[in-house]
């Protein structure tokens, strides 16, 4: 999936929000799925240094997207 590879090794919370907004606009995900993606990748959950946080956020986001595609 091209979207997954475009995310790269790091992603900020703002970048995730942009992806999620686009996914909703194109009816790729539901509002409920969007909320779960936002919560799982939020700064409130990832209380680490920025560099580590952005790497973990990218891994979480990509894995969640891959699982949504499998369904």
What this model shows, in words?
With about 70 residues, the chain is mainly alpha-helical. It contains four helices and no strands. The protein has a single domain, classed as Non-ribosomal Peptide Synthetase Peptidyl Carrier Protein, Chain A, CATH 1.10.1200. The protein is globular, with a radius of gyration of 11 Å.
Kindly summarize this structure in a few lines.
The chain has helices spanning 2-7, 13-25, 31-40, 50-70. It is an all-alpha fold and 71 residues long.
The helix/strand class is mainly alpha
> In CATH's first tier, which class applies?
Mainly Alpha
What Rg do the Cα atoms give? 11 Å
Number of helices: 4
Assess the beta-strand content as a share of residues: under 5%
Keywords:
71 residues; mainly alpha; Non-ribosomal Peptide Synthetase Peptidyl Carrier Protein, Chain A; 4 helices; 0% strand; globular
Topology:
Blueprint: H1 2-7, H2 13-25, H3 31-40, H4 50-70
Helix pairs in contact: 2-3
